[in-house]
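Dear support,

I submitted the protein below through the web form. The confirmation email said the job was done, but the results page showed an empty box. After a refresh the structure appeared. I'm attaching both so you can tell me whether what I see now is the final result or a partial one.
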Amino acid sequence: MRAVGPFTQTELAIVRRAFARQMLAAAGVTDDRLERAFAAVRREDFLNAAPWQFVRWPAGRSLPQSDPAAVYQDVVIALQPGRGVNNGSPSLHAAMLHDLMVEPGQHVVHIGAGAGYYTAILAELVGPSGRVSAFEFDTELAIRARTNLEAWPHVTVAAADGGQAPTELVDRIYVNFAVAAPAMSWIERLEPDGKLLFALGAPHPSAQKKFPRHSARGAALLVERRPAGLAAKYLYPAYFVCAEGKLSGDHDSELALFAAFEKGGIEFIKSLQLDDGVDATRCWYSTARWGLSYDALDG
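What the results page shows now:
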């Protein structure tokens, strides 16, 4: 009988292929390019030193052994527990990356890159003819991501506040934390037909002053720049750690957003309105600067 021991790199490549297919199946999508991207990236290279800590299942438990094969399942793994930062749910990211529809040769911005795992998957999707610009608020994580991503020369990593990025027109923006409002720079710097995917979220009112904070109500939203304006679509529930820095939500806005989630109806939104175009009577949620409207774009 063969002794139980560490998997070889050849065996781990097979495990990654199976993992990729399973995560897309869990997300309910078929996407050959995305499946290949998941299979190509070694998740263990973007984690803390073993043993790894599973955040939700089983809650707070560390693996008893340093076996990379164990991380190829739909589990959330801690990166910075004190800040509530983790490696993310692979099946949720599979769904979101599928909906972002990244194409070869595009310029994609990844905001909230963490240690760079999903940045690497984005780099696989755009290919060497494309570009990925990654931004991470925490300097230590940004340095780790830069090292982790050295194998992808078409990726750059900046330690910067995501509320100030990007600084040029881009094709896709992928945001990996919860916000009470999208940054205006995300919207203003979308190319025509460009897509922005972010998590709108609000913490529970009882947890507003705690740190770290996570969204108790949240949704993945897809925004697309079209000739007639900004189309917006609710995708599915999505819960992330809440933003820090310039994008940290103010108390009143977070309470109002939480109330909107409690009221329901986000699944009926059709467009994102800005400034003078905001008609609060036709919005699921709105402020003076922006709103999510039930009205579809003309044309």
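Response: this is the final, complete result; the empty box was a page-load delay. The two ends are 67 Å apart (CA to CA).
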